[in-house]
Write a structure and sequence with these properties.
alpha+beta, Calcium-transporting ATPase, cytoplasmic transduction domain A, Calcium-transporting ATPase, cytoplasmic domain N, 10-stranded mixed β-sheet, about 40% helix, elongated
């Protein structure tokens, strides 16, 4: 038969394999000199359109009236394979030019940079005034958080037809015009490329902001400005107060005495308390550019690694008497990501840069993220493609059988040529039908989804409810491809510091001598006498008044003196004020509180502290310190006051202070009542006590203490025993209440998210007591929960305890009535994440309603997220604000960064950036739920409309002898997705709302619909597909019945094939637009433009195009048909009757679902429609009262709330010998 090509089809190129480099099974050890290979974007190609056909008029008696013409089609083939959604260990490479003698060496020589030329060779015999110079490495550009500029979209795959344009160009194979589909292909590629370019540009711009930060590096005898990406190993840099360190540095000297400096590491470990670093005594005297420029030698360092808390190195300095070796340890290491605080300046040597810094070693490479909806679409496309192949094969077999059986009866058709190869002919037939049916899988879906997701991201960005006016920061959706994932989150992994809290400690309330005071007192809580008993609180003005003329004045004086004297704070005097540098944020808040109450701490010397009380200086001699540790939970200071009396001031957790009180303390009961009130408000409580000590008692005890402090065996235990001897018979002065200030709306947000079925895990580098306290404050840990605390020292102890707890939990009668919270520290977590324990740990964690992981490293945060991601089929979200959260953010399906006041590392690496944790509620419950439902509807409708149209081509093959003849004109087929049905899915995807934002906020349980994939799943997809097959069947065969005898024109001629095809096309369009109207929940002006407007546009288009195009030798099939169809009653009857018949079943099914099979959102839609009031607030007030009662009961069972204090050690010793009276160099 003519119309076939006998040329052999060229061999098809093999599809490239997409290799997913993210593999959790690999070791966490980061390999050097390994780069991440780029993953190529997939070509998005679509089928091109067909040659035109003119109708052939056949005699009335011939039943086969329509023209039979043959063309060829190309299979809808995917040029990629779906990569597994695994995670990847980080890949890094050494910075360019860094001198590495041997990658396996335990030590690496890192040169110091000098003023000489960079290529000067080192000489073993250089004097003190000479400098050594080596080639040093340059910082590689990367994001602050290690995200790099990789675009998260770069590996997403949706299967598309990329071979149709090629095969359609083969002569006499395609049944459609070979040029029409090129337009669709160009639109798809252009739109996708534009979107990728825009988002990638934003990421590169963020990277540039970090890499182009300025710092000062030594050049000659002065410091000059350099960008971060120009800093080299061996450079000596100057960092000033408030600046971030541009690389990992070794501290040489500082403006502070003894080479001390203060740093904040919240970006690294989540702790806001300041840490003290001290330079070596050999370099701390280099305090001017001229002195530091004379430094010569080299640095021997350990290899780059991810341990934040360890470091071993050796600084070899050139001197007059030869080289001098200076050992280095973590005390001198200043890590990139940390910030210099309360220190005017420091000098440091660059030891690690770029990807070799410890911060970057804890980061993961930016993963390729694909949504669960996309994965589901890919799987269903594969099944649809199998159906497409089956249909093409069946049609080819049909043609083959028909040709063999009727070859002699219809010789004029010439189904086979003289030299035809039957198998080759059969193969070309398959290609023809593949091209004919290929749009069962909608190519336009790709660009439609990209446009809709981009618009959904724009709606998030422009939402004023998520705009933070204080910092002028709107929400920012950096990766629009993941918007629908926001509606399916099941687990949230959150950092604590800066994410849930504001990094601010404030002295709020105190109880002194049984009287409660507060900085701000609400009217309902003001002090008043009820039944002869005083209740409520006084303000701080009343406290100052009582200090002058009240019976408790002496107690108040001792209370405030203790706050001003017993601490490890260093005062930094400014022109008009004093800045308190505190390694413990609680201590800083207490000292500031005492200062507000006119007890100002002003001076620290090695053996004394000075405070100013009512304008008069008072010096207290520090005799001994009994340091805080996690076992003691208290801190004591033995002082000699200005009157010569020896006093012991002791502060600590209530559980340890109360048991050390003397008998008949007058204020114990009242103080306990106030403690309960403070704790139920989520405040951090601390008991304050004292006692006077006689000279004789102190002399005896001091001897015991001195002996304990000098013993070589079990020194800490001996010191603790010595402290026990004197910390007794204490007098309770009162208690303090400090607020670790939560961000606004955090408790309410967490409660609402839990109602939505989302489980929240807090992963923090902070201490266990602090984390538990914040968990209680933010309502993550509720009063009725039982805490499971796991702090073990070995693998086997951890395994035994985990298994024991799981067995105990499985035996519970009513798990819902006994909610649990799991608390685990970083050391134990290290064991729990090992291969043989990870599933046991995960099982226990999933049985708990809340999980808090304390003292965890950035890498452990990422490993916890990956553990859940690997073993649970759940969508995960990670949220944080610092560089230490970047790995966790990138490991989760969706990463959310908090745009904090300090640093944007997490926000730059995240998929979505918001400025407050409370905005997460609207981001997920409203935007997430809308996006998921809209995308689900868009995808289902896109498949439906294409299947409905193109399946009519399949039914037609049974009547045209399986010849490959098309029903519709070629360009009109192309315009179906490009013009006539493009607006309904876009408008539904952008503006549709199945319920309003107000209802989604009021009923957070609706969010579970997304978690359960109610709107898009296998059942729903194939339900829509079957419905599309049903509609196509009705459309085709009803039109065949109507046009059974064709239309006879006034001239006596038959209207012909193209009148029937155009009429059927119009009926199909009316049906699919009617279906769009039926599933639309919210009608806006855009909906009217999209649905009725599209149909009107088609009618106008066919008139104009059908009149003009044939004259231009385009679409000549339309010649003469416009007047025929628009003057025929049959045309109007067809386009009205058939859509009604098709959609009648859909309308009936919608009625049945709403009335008899209703889901939760159907009920809420009715509540919204009729504006039914909600009486639940009364119930919430009742539940709030119940929770308060439970909180008090819980506190009475086990009191003891956290007070954040550093362990005793080198930092405390450094502070004791600090002298603030010494002048500071300017550097």
């Amino acid at each position: 038969m003519s119309g076939f090509s006998y040329n052999n089809s060229p061999p098809r190129p093999s599809p490239p394999n997409l290799i997913d480099p993210f593999d959790d099974q690999q070791t966490v050890e980061i390999q050097q000199n390994t780069t991440n290979q780029p993953v190529p974007l997939q070509s998005l190609q679509a089928a091109v359109t067909p040659p035109s056909f003119r109708p052939t008029y056949i005699q009335p008696g011939n039943q086969n009236r329509r023209s039979l013409t043959y063309t060829q089609l190309n299979p809808y083939y995917n040029d990629s394979i779906e990569d597994e959604d695994e995670d990847q260990e980080a890949f890094y490479s050494d910075s360019t030019g860094l001198m590495r003698q041997n990658s396996n060496m335990s030590e690496v020589n890192l040169p110091l940079t000098s003023n000489a030329a960079l290529n000067t060779s080192p000489s073993p015999s250089m004097g003190a005034g000479e400098m050594r110079t080596f080639i040093s490495n340059t910082t590689k550009p990367e994001t602050e958080g290690g995200g790099g500029s990789d675009n998260n979209d770069d590996g997403r795959i949706i299967y598309v037809n990329d071979s149709s344009p090629c095969i359609q160009q083969i002569k006499d194979v395609s049944p459609t015009n070979p040029y029409t589909t090129l337009g669709t292909l160009v639109v798809v590629l252009t739109a996708t490329a534009f979107k990728e370019i825009v988002e990638d540009y934003k990421r590169h711009r963020s990277d540039a902001e970090v890499n182009q930060r300025s710092c000062k590096a030594l050049q000659g005898n002065s410091f000059v400005a350099k960008e971060w990406n120009e800093v080299k190993v061996g450079d000596i840099v100057r960092v000033e107060n408030g600046e971030f360190f541009p690389a990992d540095l070794i501290l040489l000297s500082s403006s502070e005495p003894e080479g001390l400096c203060y740093i904040e590491t919240s970006n690294l470990d989540g702790e806001t308390n300041l840490k003290i670093k001290q330079a070596s005594g050999e370099t701390s005297n280099l305090i001017s550019p001229s002195e530091i420029s004379r430094l010569g030698g080299y640095l021997k360092s350990e290899k780059p690694n991810n341990s934040l808390y360890t470091y071993d190195g050796l600084l070899v300095m050139d001197g007059i008497n030869g080289q001098k070796q200076v050992p280095l340890d973590p005390t001198q290491l200043l890590l990139r990501g940390a910030q210099l605080r309360n220190t005017p300046w420091i000098y440091g040597i660059v030891v690690f840069t770029g990807h070799e810094t410890k911060l970057m070693r804890n980061a993961s490479a930016t993963p390729i993220k694909r949504t669960s909806v996309e994965k589901m679409v890919n799987i269903q496309i594969i099944f649809l493609f199998c159906i497409l192949l089956t249909m093409s094969l069946a049609c080819s077999i049909g043609f083959f059988v028909r040709a063999l059986k009727f070859d002699k009866e219809m010789p004029y058709l010439k189904p086979f040529g003289v030299n035809d190869n039957l198998f080759s002919q059969f193969g070309f037939n398959i290609l023809t039908f593949l091209i004919l049916f290929n749009n069962l899988i909608p190519i336009s879906l790709i660009v439609t989804m990209e446009v809709v997701k981009f618009q959904q991201a724009s709606l998030i960005n422009s939402d004023l409810d998520m705009y933070y006016e204080k910092t002028d920061t709107p929400a920012l959706c950096r990766t629009s491809s993941l918007v629908e994932e926001l509606g399916q989150i099941e687990y949230i992994f959150s950092d604590k510091t800066g994410t849930l809290t504001c990094n601010e400690m404030e002295f709020r309330q105190c109880s002194i001598a049984g009287i409660a005071y507060a900085d701000v007192v609400e009217e309902s809580k003001r002090a008043r006498v009820i039944d002869g008993v005083e209740v409520g609180s006084h303000d701080f003005k009343k406290l100052k008044s009582n200090l002058r003329n009240h019976s408790t004045a002496n107690v108040i004086n001792e209370f405030l003196t203790l706050l001003a004297v017993c601490h490890t704070v260093i005062p930094e005097k400014n022109i008009n004020d004093i800045i308190y540098q505190a390694s413990s944020p609680d201590e800083g808040a207490l000292v500031k509180g005492a200062s507000i109450l006119d007890y100002k701490f002003t001076t620290r010397r090695p053996k004394s502290v000075t405070i100013v009380v009512n304008g008069q200086e008072q010096e207290y001699e520090i005799l001994n310190i009994c340091e805080f540790n996690s076992t003691r939970k208290r801190m004591s200071t033995v002082v000699r006051d200005p009157d010569g009396k020896i006093k012991l001031y002791c502060k600590g957790a209530d559980t340890v202070i109360l048991e050390r009180l003397s008998e008949n303390n007058p204020f114990t009961e009242l103080t306990l009542q106030h403690l309960e009130e403070y704790a139920t408000e989520g405040l951090r409580t601390l008991c304050i006590s004292m006692r006077e000590i006689s000279e004789e008692e102190y002399r005896i005890w001091a001897g015991v203490y001195e002996k304990a402090s000098t013993t070589l065996t079990n020194r800490q235990e001996e010191l603790d025993k010595a402290a026990e001897m004197i910390e007794k018979n204490l007098f309770l002065l009162g208690a303090t209440a400090i607020e670790d200030k939560l961000q606004d709306g955090v408790p309410e947000t967490i409660h609402t998210l839990q109602q939505a079925g989302i489980k929240i895990w807090v992963l923090t580098g902070d201490r266990q007591e602090t984390a538990i306290n914040i968990g209680l404050s933010c309502k993550l840990i509720q009063e009725e929960m039982t805490l499971i605390v796991i702090n073990e020292e070995s693998h086997w102890e951890t395994k035994e305890l985990l298994e024991k707890k799981i067995q105990a939990m499985k035996g519970r009668v009513n798990p819902e009535a006994e909610p649990l919270a799991l608390i685990i520290d970083g050391r134990t977590l290290e064991f729990a994440l090992e291969k043989d324990l990870e599933k046991t740990f995960l099982e226990l964690a999933t049985l708990c309603k809340a999980v808090v992981c304390c003292r965890v490293s950035p890498l452990q945060k990422a490993l916890v997220v990956k553990l859940v991601k690997r073993h649970l089929k759940a969508i995960l979200l990670a949220i944080g604000d610092g560089a230490n959260d970047v790995s966790m953010i990138q490991a989760a399906h969706v990463g959310v960064g908090i745009s904090g006041l300090e640093g944007m590392q997490a926000a730059r690496s995240a998929d979505v950036a918001i400025s407050q944790f409370r905005y997460l509620k609207k981001l997920l419950l409203v935007h997430g739920a809308w996006s998921y439902q809209r995308l689900s509807k868009l995808i289902l409708y896109s498949f439906y409309k294409n299947i409905t149209l193109y399946m009519t081509q399949f039914w037609y093959t049974f009547q045209n002898g399986f010849s490959g003849q098309v029903i519709y004109e070629s360009w009109t087929i192309t315009y179906y997705n490009v013009l006539f049905t493009v607006l309904p899915p876009v408008v539904m995807g952008v503006f549709d709302q199945f319920v309003s934002a107000r209802m989604l906020d009021r009923y957070p349980q609706l969010y579970m619909l997304g978690q359960k994939s109610e709107f898009f799943n296998v059942k729903t997809f194939w339900g829509w597909t079957i419905n599309a097959f049903y509609h196509s069947l009705i459309l085709y065969y009803m039109s065949i019945v109507i046009f059974n005898q064709d239309l006879v024109l006034a001239s006596g001629e038959l209207a012909g094939h193209w009148v029937w095809g155009t009429t059927l096309y119009t009926a199909v369009l009316a049906t699919v637009l009617g279906k769009a109207a039926l599933i639309t929940d919210l009608w806006t002006k855009y909906t009217y433009i999209a649905i009725p407007g599209s149909f009107i546009f088609w009618l106008v288009f066919v008139v104009l195009y059908g009149s003009i195009a044939p004259k231009l030798k385009i679409s000549e099939e339309y010649e003469g048909i416009v007047g025929v169809i628009f003057t025929s009653p049959v045309f109007y009857a067809t386009i009205i009757l058939i859509p009604i018949v098709c959609l009648l079943r859909d309308y009936a099914w919608k009625y049945v679902k709403h009335m008899y099979m209703s889901r939760s959102y159907h009920t809420v839609q009715e509540i919204q429609k009729f504006n039914i009031p909600d009486y639940r607030p009364r119930m919430e007030q009742f539940q709030k009262a119940i929770r308060k009662v439970r909180a008090v009961q819980r506190l009475r069972k086990s009191r003891g709330f956290a007070f954040s204090q550093n362990e005793s050690g080198q930092e405390a010793q450094l502070i004791r010998v600090y002298d603030t009276t010494l002048a500071k160099p300017k550097g």
